[in-house]
Amino acid sequence: MLLVSLSQNVAIGDLLRASSQSLFVALAKRFDVTVHLGMLEEGMVSYVSKVAAPNAFPINTRVGAQLEAYCSALGKVLLSSLSQARLDSFVLEGDLVPLTPNTIIAPHLLRAELEKIRRQKYAVDNGEADADIICIAVPICDTEGRMIAAMSASDHASRMDDRQQIIIRDALWAAVAELEQKVFPRHVKSAG
To answer: Is residue 180 classed exposed, middle or buried when 0-12, 13-18 and 19+ CB atoms within 10 A define those classes?
Structure first.
């Protein structure tokens, strides 16, 4: 079963990467940001795709790399889809190590953050993985409404005020709706 699960993740990741490339390029150029596609693997975010605008603030990530899920927008939006039992077993058994002063390291605060993300259908990393970066992520769901991946946009904190975050979040939701229709044609996405 583990091999089937891993092969499905690879196939879905490849399909999403290929289907999202033009959307990623358009978003990156439009907002001068770095756009990522990530999937949850064993409690970690695996970067499946990355597109950075030519003048985007440099983000220290690469395709194939992994990051702890609790401190990134991609990771938090993906963790928000887990059942409480899976969340406890995969993520919250170990110590939550602070990468910056903004990293959420108290399990009860992380649970509250994940509940908020479930309700609002997006996540924000406000300097939690890197103090200079703000990242916004939204879920990508399959035809059954299961979250299978997430898409994010990252930029320097000085360029991501509240208004810009809302604009980028809405653009991400629109891109994900288009991607879901392309990959899962029968999927009907409810409004953000």
So the answer is: buried
2-183 topology per CATH: Beta-Lactamase (3.30.450)
Name every residue whose Cβ is closer than 8 Å to that of residue 161 and which is 6 or more positions away in sequence. none
Name which of 88, 99, 82 is nearest 139 in CA terms.
82
pLDDT in tens, 15-65: 676 767 788 899 999 999 999 999 998 778 999 999 999 999 999 999 989
Domain residue spans in the chain? Answer: 2-183
Number of H helices, E strands in the chain: 5, 6
Tally of CB atoms within 10 A around 4: 8
Q: What is the pTM of this model?
A: 0.84
CA separation for the pair 79, 156 (Å, rounded): 24
